[in-house]
Amino acid sequence: MLQNRRPRRNRKSGAIRAMVAENTLTANDFIFPLFLIPGVNEKQSISSMPGIYRYSLDLLLLEIEECIRLGIKGFCIFPSLEDDQKDKYATEGYNKNGLYIKALKEVKLQFPDIVLMTDIAMDPYSSDGHDGIVEKGEIINDKTLEILGKMALIQAQAGADILGPSDMMDGRVGYIRRILDEAGYTSVSIMSYTVKYASAFYGPFRDALDSAPKFGDKKTYQMNPANSKEALIEADLDIEEGADMIMVKPALSYLDVIKSLKDNYNVPITAYNVSGEYAMIKAASEKGWLDEDKVIMESLLSMKRAGADIILTYFAKEAAKLLKK
Ligand code: PBG
Q1: Which of 7, 53, 78, 297 is the most exposed place for a label (fewest CB within 10 A)?
Q2: Total tally of structural domains belonging to the chain
Q3: How far is the CA of 21 from the centre of ligand 1 (A)?
């Protein structure tokens, strides 16, 4: 058969396939989310996230050390608190002597070269389990900003490299940027959770932090999964307000949104490969229904192909190991 163009020629060997690959994964792409608990020598498993643990600070440091050896450079720490430390105003979230801030300082002291990312939102500390202040069943936007600003400032003081506002309140990026700049923290970055959907894929994370909303849902602040144009409004605002990097969350069901941000903006794009996406692959693999290693790499690569520069993923450690093979 006469045929000028035969795409299979570019697939004929492993060497050629590698040469023409349009996208690659490296450990540099990853940020590994870690869960922190009080105490010493504590390591708790999370039933909906096999292979992921909540660590006390001493063990968290060992875990980070191991990940650094595998080439991971980015870490994002989330605190998991007891109910008696939670209140309506997330007061523990801006306690300079609290568990979270102490841990951030220690991590940065021990590992000055990593990229240390933090989380800004009220939910881990809120007795209502919401990301903002609740009054008469409503989430109050502008009052919440004051609390987020306090959290941002002490996290910057503790040595965070990147702050991650994950709350979806309007105007929070600009508000936080101003507070940081006025206090002299002009080089602390903001990675905004720009396009965060009201997703059921966060279930296992809420198990990990015991942070599920006590009433209602998060649909008045997180985005409707039906929408993609609205993502451009969120991105316009966040970039105008000073976000250095923007995020889409979750990743796998929203690859179109990642692509659309990549096509429309020039700042780095992050995909958050969330807890439910992790749990699905783990569950199917435990049953022997999927080849876990291959599915992990294929799904992470799909996020890069869609346009993600950075991937927040619970698979970071496993993927870094696989990349070393
Ligand atoms: C909340 C927050 C959530 C996640 C990160 N920060 C959950 C939520 O909005 O309820 C989810 C991450 C995951 O599922 O892996 N500020």
Answers
A1: 7
A2: 1
A3: 33
Task: Tell whether 237 is covered by a domain.
Answer: yes
CA of 289 to the centre of ligand 1 (A): 27
Structure tokens at 229: 């144009």
- CATH assignment at residue 44: 3.20.20.70
Residue 168 in any domain: the answer is yes
- Work out whether strand 245-249 and strand 269-273 pair parallel, antiparallel, or are unpaired: parallel
Q: To test ligand 1's pocket by mutation, which of 35, 194, 205 has the most ligand atoms within 8 angstroms of CB?
A: 205
- pLDDT one-digit tens code per residue, 15-32: 999 999 999 999 999 999
pLDDT digits (tens, 9 = 90+) for 202-256: 999 999 988 899 999 999 999 999 999 999 999 999 999 999 999 999 999 999 9
Q: Which long-range contacts (CB under 8 A, 24 or more apart) does 133-138 make?
A: 133/88, 133/89, 134/88, 137/215, 137/216, 138/220
